[in-house]
Amino acid sequence: MPNIIEITDFEAPELDVYARFTEGQLLNRHEPEKGLFIAESPKVVERALDAGYQPVSFLVERKHAEGEAREILSRCGETPVYTAEYEILRQLTGFPMTRGVLCAMRRPALPSVEQVCAGARRIAVLEDVMNPTNVGAVFRSAAALNMEAVLLTPFCSNPLYRRASRVSMGTVFQIPWTYLGEPSWGWPEPGIEKLHALGFKTVAMALSDRSIRIDDPVLLSEEKLAIVLGTEGDGLALDTIADCDYTVRIPMAHGVDSLNVAAASAVAFWQLGAK
């Protein structure tokens, strides 16, 4: 039976996670075992629950508590469900809520690179992709187009940020992922060495004089591929391109020089994904 609690005090500390905590405070780098994240929209929350993530509380528009969110809330026992009308929730959170449902959840400990890549033939690697919307879009494409895992370099936006998980439609809870080392690691060389040790050939998605077309048959003949995509604007670092086994381009037309990283990921995953 859901534990429905009507909001009467905007300053209640139980609402801090929704109204006053930044993404950095939720992440809680100093005490990661206490870290939280916010899942937004019924579909995203449902996929997180299906993946075993633990809810701490809900913030739900009143009409959805007995409507679209009813089945989700029924799965979560006595987990507190804070509720009010839409305008009150918008005033509290400071942003429009997608379909009137937010859920605070505990962050699990991240798996190792070896665990994430176990059994995988095709994985994606994101280098310093800092826009949460792009991270979410890449995850959605990765899940849909046969990537079996995603690795992120330390300066990437966290996939559990509210916007990233929402844009991904909850696929960040379905596809295995983790970070590839710490900021002090010195990516790219140590990270690429680890990928090689795990049996992956590395593919740098970049325009260069030595790039090959994405439909080159040699790529599909490789047993295991790690597809490396770079940050918005600058793309991959030159050292990363130099260290990868292949440099691969998506042929462009009409004078277009390149695609957004999210769009490029969809093309690359479609062409090179596990068949």
Please sum up the structure shown.
The protein is of the alpha/beta class. It contains 13 helices and twelve strands.
Name the poorly predicted regions. Answer: none
Anisotropy-based shape: elongated
Q: Order of strands across the biggest sheet?
A: 8-7-6-11-9-12-10
Query: Could you give the order of the helices and strands?
Result: EHHEHEHHEHEHEHEHEHEEHEHEH
Which SSEs are present, and which pair or pack?
Layout: E1 3-6, H1 16-19, H2 23-27, E2 36-40, H3 42-50, E3 55-61, H4 62-65, H5 70-74, E4 80-84, H6 86-93, E5 101-106, H7 113-117, E6 122-126, H8 132-144, E7 150-152, H9 162-167, E8 177-179, H10 189-197, E9 201-205, E10 212-213, H11 217-220, E11 225-229, H12 238-243, E12 246-249, H13 261-272
Parallel strand pairs: 1-4, 3-4, 6-7, 6-11, 7-8, 9-11, 9-12, 10-12
Antiparallel strand pairs: 2-5, 3-5
Helix pairs in contact: 8-13
Question: Can you tell me about this structure?
Answer:
The chain is of the alpha/beta class. The protein has 13 helices and 12 strands. It has helices spanning 16-19, 23-27, 42-50, 62-65, 70-74, 86-93, 113-117, 132-144, 162-167, 189-197, 217-220, 238-243, 261-272, and strands spanning 3-6, 36-40, 55-61, 80-84, 101-106, 122-126, 150-152, 177-179, 201-205, 212-213, 225-229, 246-249. The strands form 2 sheets. It has a 7-stranded parallel sheet with strand order 8-7-6-11-9-12-10. It has a 5-stranded mixed sheet with strand order 1-4-3-5-2. Strand 6, helix 8 (132-144) and strand 7 form a beta-alpha-beta unit. Helix 8 (132-144) packs parallel to helix 13. It is elongated. The termini are far apart. The model has no long low-confidence stretch (mean pLDDT 92).
